[in-house]
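Mods, move this if it's the wrong board.
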Amino acid sequence: MKGLWRKFFVGSFVAYASMFGFAHGGDVKVGSIAGVTGPIAELIAPIVASRMMAAGVVNDQGGLYGSTKYRLLQFDSQCDAKAAIDAAGKAVNVERVVLVLGASCSGATKAMVEGVTIPAGVVSISDSATAPGLSGLKDGDNVFRVVPSDAYQGRAIAEQAIKLGYKDMAVSYANDDYNAGIAKVFMEAYESLGGEVTASGSHEPDKASYRSELATLARGGSKALALFAYYGSSGINIIKNSLEGGLFDKFLAADGMLDKSVIESIGAEALAGNIHITNAASDSDNVAYKLFARLAAEHGIDPAGPYVAHGFDASFLMALALEQAGSAERGKIAKALREVSGGGGEVIYPGEWKKAKKLIAAGKAINYEGATGSLDFDENGDVAGLYALHGVTKSGEFESKLLNE
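Not the wrong board. Structure tokens:
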């Protein structure tokens, strides 16, 4: 499967690169680091395509500065800490990229920024790393993300648990930065809202069976399980084992479980009305999102996919910061990034590169309003955001609604 996936990704990249006209010399190089292989590879593919689409818009509308190409160099983090450090080392120290976009999973992103980008003074922007621990890093204002922290999502899941009538729940979480972090936030929020955590425990990924761990959790008496895991490494197996053993039949989960393969592997009959999954989302009625969705549809990308809009925003915002800085000097990017995303200036929407370029050249302030909403960074480089709740229908589709924060 992994071999087939690598062939698909490389083929897709070549196709997109050809479509968007990437040059191979004299370009402004940005490292696009993502979990191309690993536990959520299928989820990552459209995010990377969306990043590349944003770069294509920039190049099609005049490029950076005079007519310099905005080039994304692709690296695979595998959603693994060591692989992410290796990928970032090649990007920063060998290819001498100006910025880094990525590296998908939270643990890989934390390892990457602490091990490579922060020491090198290179700005990074994440479009999908949500672990609360990234907010408190001593990063010299070099770590940003366009997706909200799980400090918000964990509480949103807890609120939904109460609204769904789950007075008690067991909690299982994968032993990594992202899943352990959001589980901690969830449990604290859930109990503060009156819920009871009957049992909780971590689990290791990629095991053939989780029956023993689940049996231990089930002794607490709850039939509802809050599951924080990646679908491809443990999540699907945990739900299967739960149902097969009659241990748990109601599930709440975060975005690491939002993939159609969950339904395909387990079956709509078992999941309909019994599972709810949250993820960072966009307001589909917002003008910025509509413009992005139109672009995505033109390029065969599903705009509603998890973090797909965030991928576009991160890539497009990077280009705006580079244009605002007036050069590809690493030390100028963080300041420029805050300038183009703050509340002041003329509004720029997704795809409006030519307009932004003209305003910047005239010395006028701009404010990028993204497909995912306003991207006003706080002191930690974080943004607020919206969440959606996804259930499963009897016909085997996700049914979604936007949650108001």
